[in-house]
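Throughout our pipeline, every protein is held as a single compact record rather than as scattered files. The remainder of this section carries one protein's record, kept here as part of the documentation.

===
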Amino acid sequence: MSLRHTLLAIVAASLWGFTFVAIKVGLGEFPPLLFAALRFVVVAFPAILFVPRTGIAWRWIVAVGLAMGTCQYGLLYVGMENGMPASLSSLVIQSQALFTLVFSSWVLQDVPRRQQWLGVGLALAGMGAIAFDRSGHASSLGLLLVVGAAASWAVGNICIKLAQVSNGFRLFVWMAVVPPLPLLGLSMQFESGQWAALRSLTPLGIGAILYTGLIASLLCFGFWAYLVQHYSPNRVAPFSLLVPIFGMAFSVLLLGDSLSQWEMMGSLLVFIGLCCTLMSPARPSQLIEPETD
């Protein structure tokens, strides 16, 4: 990857890391499925009035919207509501890198190199060390839900690649019209207190919606789609392993979390694994020439 694209991926990872703090704040203001629906309402409106859908088939809008909107964030928010702390959630959801690698090998016939497997293995070992150290702080249900969110993210990565759209920003604006209705329907079925939360909006609640909607979704997913269009998902996905490092750092600074020696060692393994994966030379088929416009 070029230096410019590498820096873009790192910026997206840092903004996503802070997102878990914003989600934890928002979950104190809203029921989880309602909060997830509001996130995508902010993404979609009024952006769809100014961003044309040119060249994007509805089947891919629906597929990406269901995978990376409804399923990923519905499961993540409910999982965090059910005992998963922000720092551990930012870690566990990055197992999407392993899911993406497996799905990409199966669907796209994009077989990773040995060094890529080694890098992901080291990163997963680091994630496992942190998860083991923090396992007593998370419910088994919450953990399972966040793992499901990671698998949904990986499915979305593959859908973006298969869609072969020329403008990733348009895809992410339009895919945001899909999640609100199913999430609101699920919220009405399984949650309570929605109207009370909306009537008593606070600056913290509004800020959480705006950050998760405009920054974490619209901006960062636009970056992510752009990178996945230009490179193999196996090349882009490992950058997401930086998210838990940023997420844990922000949790320490803003939520008062503390990092144990196991957590610091695990974070170092994640970083080494990422470096290992990035140093693996790309096959010619892994690269797509950037657009010149």
Q: What stands out?
A: Residues 3-286 form one domain. The radius of gyration is 18 Å. Residues 23 and 208 are 7 Å apart (CA to CA).
